[in-house]
Amino acid sequence: MPLLDVVLGYDCNAACAYCTITDEMRRRALGPEAVAREIDRAAQAGFREIAFTGGEPTIREDLPKLVRYARKRGFVDVKVSSNGLRYAHAPYLDHLIAAGVNRFHVSAHALGDAAYEQVTRLPGTGPAFRRGVEHLVARGLDPTLDLIVKEDTYHTLPAWIDALVAMGVRRFALWLVSLTDGNAKNVEQLPALAAIVPLLTRAFDDARAGGYEVVSLHVPRCFLPGYEGHVRHPGEGGVRVVTPDEVFDLRDSRLTGGHKPAACARCAFDERCPGLRRDYVERFGEHVTPVSRFTPEAPVTESAAPGAAADPRAR
After folding, report:
1. 142: alpha, beta or left, given left = phi > 0 and alpha = psi -120 to 50?
2. Which domains does the chain have, with CATH numbers?
3. Pairing between β-strand 239-242 and β-strand 247-249 as defined by DSSP bridges
4. Are the C-beta atoms of 173 and 145 separated by less than 8 Å?
5. Which of 272, 175, 255, 174 has its CA nearest to residue 221?
């Protein structure tokens, strides 16, 4: 089912060191009338899933009102993608639930409070993040944690996921850091796929053994033989993205890939795979290994995949 992804604005209550959003972008936002128009247009086209993203959508005081309007227009699946800091205040979380939010994605930046706050550059955000996740779990909301995979975080993936599983989290999506806009010059943050694959496969093995879900975005299936069921690509299933600047199909975004080496034409996954991201190719080149054939495995449930909502914090 297609997803309407509404980027309400680019402002945020954190200042993450890997954020792609520039100071100029933070001043741009969608007005409530514009959001309502896009909700109406999508509802008329048969959309029934919507995500509110940013920036940080929870800093918008009209977010509950917009959620209620989406419900009124027939949307049955309403997601908020957030850093989760405001969920530390349980009454605010309960207000969103009452308005109609039934899916929660929370960005996770690093393992441990000190490392987390080094990324957000704001003291006190580590404990606030943990309280927010605890409140989500306690209410049986089954949140998906969007883990940002960077040069300084991929080494800790198994322990990082273990710590969140111990808190009751059962769904994880792994996002590869992006070198665009405000983060374009921090090329050292982007790790090579060959380096992160062993940690990804270990995380997948742990998930299979532990009965929880881990999916990866931005890593083509040819890099993960035997783990193809854990791979998602942003835009699969159809995502219409509405931003303060434009409306577009997520498959056309820099986030999804866009560079397909000639060897991809010989790959069994060619029709399903968007290829490599251009920022990755600029840093590491276009090496891929085509898969001549594959044996389908039992798929990981789609619920952990962000459909995938376009989160500018990971763009």
Report:
1. left
2. 3-256+299-314 (3.20.20.70)
3. antiparallel
4. yes
5. 272
CA distance 280 to 287: 11
* Structure-token match 């940013």, residue found: 54
Q: How many CA atoms lie within 13 A of 203 on its CB side?
A: 31
Residue 74 to residues 58, 68, 116, Cα–Cα distance (Å): 22, 10, 38
Spatial neighbors of 255 by CB under 8 A, at least 6 apart, are 178, 218, 234, 277, 310, 314, 315
Task: Answer yes or no: are the C-beta atoms of 224 and 279 closer than 8 Å.
Answer: no
Are 12 and 19 in contact by the 8 Å Cβ rule? The answer is yes
Cα separation, 124 vs 143, whole angstroms: 22
Tokens coding 271: 């029709």
51-71 per-position pLDDT tens digit: 999 999 999 999 999 999 999
pTM of the model: 0.92
**Model confidence pLDDT, tens digit, residues 70-114:** 999 999 999 999 999 999 999 999 999 999 999 999 999 999 999
Distance of alpha carbon 241 from its chain centroid, rounded? 14
Closest CA to 57 of 239, 312, 315, 293: 312
Distance of CA 298 to the CA centre of its chain: 23
Residue matched to tokens 């929870």: 58
Q: Which residues of 200-237 are buried (b: 16+ CB within 10 A; e: fewer)?
A: bbebbebbbeeebbbbbbbbbbbbbeebbbbbbbbbbe
